[in-house]
Amino acid sequence: MIIHCKGVGVASTRPCGDKVYFLSQYLLRVAGNPPSYDLVKVVPDPHGTGLMRSIQSEEVIVPAEQVYYYPGKVQIHDHALLVRLAAESGYRCTVFTGLDEHLTFVLDPDPDELLTIQVYDIIPPRPSLSACIKELEACGLFGDLSVKFVHHILDISTWNADVFPCRAAGFHRTLDADAMQGGEKVAGCMTGAALYHECCDQEMTLLNTCPVDQVSEEPFIARCCRIERTGIGVHHGRYGAVVHWGASPADIANSIQALVKEWRDRG
User: CA separation (Å) from 52 to 3, 20, 25, 48?
Assistant: First the structure.
């Protein structure tokens, strides 16, 4: 369980006596030398007025000896990170300090409750989809989705091919820069094969690099240069999202949000 920081208060002083902020759901009540806290569930008086309310009820949920205070600052909206760190602590409850000094906690962490999304991408050059997801995850964009990602990055630089897709990756011979002679082993996809045959009337052997064709687990997200393959659907018997090769961070985030909703709606 993770509570938004607006519902978590710190009870270290009593500027308004025994009253609590009206949005408070839990208090981290200082127990002994800080940072040592009891986790207390509170119910502010629902009939009260003003920002500070009398407490209708309170209950110690976790005593201080079962609460761990994580020593560093973290992005508290990155829920997958918080759950992982809390599970590693070995305590029932782990308290975290955000980059902006807000506090929250994870109670009874279970990493298996997070939905795992499989990410398929290739290198070189930069694995744009995978890298973008890591950047978005690090800023907490997917926090409310309760998801984690497993990245499958195919390194085509290790392949025994004569020709590679494009010069951007620094390969010595590429489809977009060199004339084809026929008979080559070409690392590429269906678009690369089409380009080859438009420029050369000879046969070749295709070594398929398309991330979508590497999919083996679901739900997944992968990138592809074929616009007609983009969207949410089934590929190779697996359910997931395909984004275009040049998808923006907003496109990627929207696709993940839509995928998670549709996957969970499917039951």
Answer: 20, 5, 13, 8
